[in-house]
């Protein structure tokens, strides 16, 4: 055995020995599904179909290290976290933006539909962008608790511009002998031929500067408050830079949970939420009201009920959407949700 193999074998043996003495590993999973009655049409879907493997250990210098791997329908996501004693540094393709990690709404009481804006996220104009999609594989710093508050800062990865692609002409296929004849853009086929369509021109897609995201959450005077902002800057002039932000406040009093959330996409859209929840008859019950201020204003109301039953939980949501000034886009949706974990 050569020297490099001896060193490698010794290192692996040392890691395995340390792991058996100090390491901790867990395996669990989760399935979250929904049956939706969308104005008469029944649909079935799932939002999470995952197996999670987590591992934690302590390095020789006393720093903690942990690895979390999530196997989902969309692929394998891995997070590596290093506890420095002065905060945690997160690496891997599962890191969120700092805002995405802290912008959950305290005004939402649904079993499986609580995120941020009810009107949508990262879906284009008029929706709330938290910087997560723009960040790509982020590097995240999480501070230790400072006076009851935790700070997160993330830095995304830069992307390059995608060059424009010109349109291409189609071809004419002879219906008798299947021979193919190239044609110019705008040129027509002759009798006995079938034209195949070419491709349309595409515009330049601007790349991104590294997306910076900052968020803070903690407790003050009995209330849980959070706030954050992401800076999404493009490399070209055809896309507008935006600084989306959020503010959330949650408070509990006399058995009631009160919540407020505001999401500002910095592209003309702002959504405000207010909600109240409580427990009754062994169930969690809550109602959420949201107002989206955009080119066309939209109001939302969601009534949620859920019950935990050990390894499984079940919930029902009724969501009413009212588009200002028109009946187009108005919906009444029922969701039956179930979550099973192990």
What does this structure look like?
The protein has 342 residues and is mainly beta. The chain has a single domain, classed as Porin (Beta Barrel), CATH 2.40.160. It is built from three helices and 19 strands. The longest helix is centred in the first third of the chain and has 20 residues. The protein is globular. The N terminus is likely disordered.
Sheet-strand content, in percent, reads: over 45%
CATH superfamily: Porin
- The end-to-end distance, rounded to whole angstroms, is 45 Å
Q: Segments where pLDDT lies below 50 for 5+ residues?
A: 1-21
CATH class: Mainly Beta
How many strands?
Answer: 19
Main sheet makeup: 16 strands, antiparallel, barrel
Based on helices, strands and strand pairing, what is the structural class? mainly beta
| Number of helical segments with 4 or more residues | 3
The H-and-E topology, N to C, reads as HEEEEEHHEEEEEEEEEEEEEE
Helix content: under 10%
How many individual domains?
Answer: 1
Shape annotation: globular
Overall mean pLDDT stands at 86
CATH architecture: Beta Barrel
Our Rg estimate from Cα atoms comes to 26 Å
């Amino acid at each position: 055995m050569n020297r490099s193999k001896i060193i490698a074998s010794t290192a692996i043996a040392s890691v395995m020995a340390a792991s058996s003495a100090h390491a901790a590993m867990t395996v669990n999973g989760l399935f979250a599904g929904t049956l939706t009655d969308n104005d008469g049409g029944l649909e079935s879907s799932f939002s999470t179909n995952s197996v999670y493997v987590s591992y934690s250990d302590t390095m020789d210098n006393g720093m903690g290290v942990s690895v979390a791997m999530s196997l989902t329908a969309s692929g394998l996501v891995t997070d590596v976290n290093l506890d420095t004693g002065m905060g945690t540094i997160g690496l891997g393709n599962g890191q969120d933006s700092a805002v995405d990690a802290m912008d959950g709404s305290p005004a939402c009481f649904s079993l499986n539909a609580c995120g941020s804006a009810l009107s949508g996220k990262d879906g284009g104009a008029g929706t709330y962008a938290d910087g997560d999609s723009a960040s790509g594989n982020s590097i995240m710093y999480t501070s230790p608790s400072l006076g009851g508050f935790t700070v997160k800062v993330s830095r995304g990865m830069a992307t390059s511009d995608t060059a424009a692609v010109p349109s291409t002409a189609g071809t004419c296929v002879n219906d008798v002998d299947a021979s193919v004849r190239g044609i110019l853009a705008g040129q027509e086929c002759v009798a006995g031929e079938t034209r195949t369509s070419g491709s349309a021109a595409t515009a330049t897609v601007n790349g991104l500067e590294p997306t910076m995201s900052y968020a803070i959450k903690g407790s003050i005077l009995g209330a849980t408050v959070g706030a954050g902002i992401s800076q999404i800057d493009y490399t070209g002039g055809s896309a507008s830079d935006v600084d989306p932000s959020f503010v959330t406040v949650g408070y509990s009093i006399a058995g009631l949970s009160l919540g407020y959330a505001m999401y500002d996409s910095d592209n003309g859209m702002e959504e405000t939420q207010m909600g109240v929840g409580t427990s009754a008859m062994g169930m969690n019950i809550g109602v959420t009201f949201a107002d989206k201020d955009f080119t066309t204003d939209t109001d939302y109301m969601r009534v949620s009920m859920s019950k935990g039953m050990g390894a499984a939980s079940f919930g029902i949501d009724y969501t009413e959407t009212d588009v200002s000034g028109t009946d187009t886009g108005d919906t009444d949706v029922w969701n039956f949700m179930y979550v099973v974990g192990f």
